[in-house]
Amino acid sequence: MKKVLVIHGPNLNMLGKREPEIYGNMTLDEINISLKAQGEKSGLRVETFQSNHEGTIVEKIQEAFETLVNGIIINPAAFTHTSVAIRDALLLLNVPIIEIHLSNIYQRETFRHKSMVADIATAQISGFGVTGYHLALQGLMDLIRQ
Fold first, then answer.
1. Which DSSP state fits 94?
2. Which of 8, 23, 81, 113 is catalytic?
3. What is the pLDDT of residues 30-87, one digit of tens each?
4. Does the annotation mark 101 as catalytic?
5. Which of 7, 24, 91, 103 could form a disulfide with 74 if both were Cys (CB 3.0 to 4.6 A apart)?
6. Do residues 1 and 40 make contact, with C-beta atoms less than 8 angstroms apart?
7. Does residue 23 have an active-site annotation?
8. Which helix (DSSP H) or strand (DSSP E) does residue 35 occupy?
9. Which of 77, 75, 69, 95 has the alpha carbon at shortest distance from 136?
10. Catalytic one of 53, 81, 101, 113
11. Rounded CA gap, 70 and 111, in Å?
């Protein structure tokens, strides 16, 4: 069975509580459950991971390299705009990488317009809310099957 890793960055553990007008009302657990169900229907094993710590995310990406995942969906959250370390870890991988954002980062504050990951990601999805995660998973499934 093909394996996909979904990485959620800092503060995403507060979804459903934090700025629902921007990020919606679903909790991270609800999002993860729905992604795992979507993957299962398509014969993919979806593993989810969240951390508020940059180094822990880097270590998870390195682990994904060692265990040979077939694709990654990553919402680096605030690390999108600052983390060379996460970018460098992603460069280890030779699999499709989909960058996802719940909000449209290009309609927000100017400092959010720069992504350290965008130019190395296979694709980027932003502004669709939780639906973006499902679009990312569908796109990743298609890429893996090619």
1. -
2. 23
3. 999 999 999 999 999 999 999 999 999 999 999 999 998 999 999 999 999 999 999 9
4. yes
5. 7
6. no
7. yes
8. helix 28-41
9. 75
10. 101
11. 32
